[in-house]
Specification:
By secondary structure, the chain is of the alpha/beta class. It is built from 11 helices and 18 strands. The chain binds flavin-adenine dinucleotide.
Length: 389
């Protein structure tokens, strides 16, 4: 039987980062990935804010495809636009991004085992025993589940599911974008979050949406809408579907196991972006898993330090995001139009968006907007107030 201090399940961004930080903290670490290739299949639009890139601890590499300075945001009948002087986000190749993160982990001493599907988890005398699809057994003091949204092993260990799981779908196709440095966001085409158009700089774009259910149905409808006519230049060459978990459970640790990333619902509820929170939380998971393993104490109580560490860094941001998400999804299309019409009459609010807009920390912008919303923007003011107080 293979023996490790820490075993990490899943070589997505959260798993690679957790494995690297566990190794940096002195543990011997095994990273297990079910697929035979890293970064595939892709379940992502690959839009990363600057904070996510910073948290990746890598300089901008071959994975970066297109830079963005702003956005056109649409409600059914209105539009607001903004463009900052500097870059705010990047479209990346998730395949290359994930491979680079794995490489960083391996360079720091992590053992990688791909083609290794973990099918069961059990506790044995203060340790954990994992068994794989090809019937190997691995003993680890601490297991980190970075399995993504399915989180089968995490549920087996007793981690509760997230508050909700949205359905996402995206195609990549030839497309004419008005401005290659702006993403397009559309509120209203489906019940849930929003639809996006992410130009890739070579007459290609990623167009997708995330909704309460049946994302493929709503995406087909969205692609046939009038404003798409003449912009779509050919058939899709790629289709991505997946779930977006939101609202982490009360505890992300169990006896012997820490859940991180999508497996722990650590996703921004305002955008469905999981890479930034996943990377932040993975560092806490790696550090605590290594320390607990080296101390020989993998109890839920000991691993609870991880829960405290990640909540101190981004717990409040995710909680506020969840309230904003619930409020936004409860608005009618008419109310959305009213709020957008109000914003488009207020250049000072759009300037704040250009200055402080950050897809990784939307609450900072929302707080800055609050004092600038006048009596005529009561609906928006109430929305922001309800999210914060
Ligand atoms: C349509 C869509 C668009 C998105 N767009 C964005 C975006 O633009 N920006 C952003 O930040 N986020 C986006 N997300 C969310 C983002 O993709 C996830 O939050 C992110 O991939 C989560 O990283 P992770 O490491 O937690 O899990 P994952 O990336 O899902 O990695 C989990 C890994 O674990 C492996 N695995 C699972 N179970 C086992 C097992 N039992 N044994 C071995 N291996 C296992 C899987 O094969 C996988 O490689 C999007 C999601 C969807 C669905």
């Amino acid at each position: 039987m293979l023996k490790y201090d820490v075993a990490v399940i899943g070589a997505g961004p959260a798993g690679s980062m957790a494995a690297k930080h566990a190794a940096l903290a002195g543990a011997n670490v095994l990273l297990l990935e079910e697929h035979k290739e890293i970064g595939w299949p892709v379940e992502c639009a690959g839009l990363l804010g600057l904070k996510a890139l910073e948290e990746s601890e890598m300089s901008l590499g071959k994975f970066a495809i297109q830079a963005f300075k702003g956005a056109d945001v649409y409600s059914p009948k209105a539009k607001v636009s903004f463009k900052a002087p500097s870059i705010k986000a990047w479209a990346v190749s998730r395949k290359l991004f994930d491979r680079s993160l794995v490489l960083e982990a391996v360079r720091n001493g992590v053992d990688l085992s791909f083609g290794s599907y973990v099918k069961s988890f059990r506790r044995n005398d203060g340790s954990c025993i994992l068994s794989t699809g090809d019937d190997r057994e691995i003993q680890a003091r601490v297991v980190i589940s970075a399995e993504g949204v399915r989180a089968f092993v995490a549920r087996m260990a007793g981690i509760a599911p997230p508050d909700k799981i949205l359905s996402g779908a995206q195609v990549e196709l030839p497309f004419t974008a008005e401005d290659q440095e702006k993403v397009e966001l559309h509120l209203g085409p489906a019940p849930g979050l929003f639809a996006w158009v992410i130009p890739l700089g070579n007459d290609m774009a990623r167009i997708g949406l995330c909704t309460k259910e049946n994302a493929c149905f709503y995406l087909r409808k969205f692609l046939k809408m009038d404003w798409m006519k003449g912009r779509i230049l050919g058939s899709p060459v790629d289709l991505v579907v997946g779930g977006l978990p939101m609202g982490p459970p009360t505890s992300t640790v169990a006896e012997g196991l820490i859940a991180v990333g999508d497996a722990a619902g650590q996703v921004k509820p305002t955008s469905g972006g999981g890479i930034y929170p996943g990377l932040v939380c993975a560092k806490a998971a790696g550090k605590v898993a290594a320390a607990a393993a080296l101390e020989g104490d993998s109890s839920k109580k000991r691993l609870g330090e991880c829960d405290r560490l990640w909540r101190a860094r981004i717990g409040q941001e995710l909680a506020v995001g969840m309230r904003l998400n619930n409020l936004l999804t409860s608005l009618t299309l008419e109310e959305l139009d009213e709020i957008f019409a109000y914003l488009s009459r207020k250049p000072e609010l759009l300037r704040l968006v250009e200055e402080h807009g950050d897809i990784d920390r939307p609450s900072i912008l929302a707080l800055k907007m609050l004092p600038h919303v006048g009596i005529d923007g009561l609906k928006l003011a109430n929305l922001l107030r309800k999210a914060f107080f």
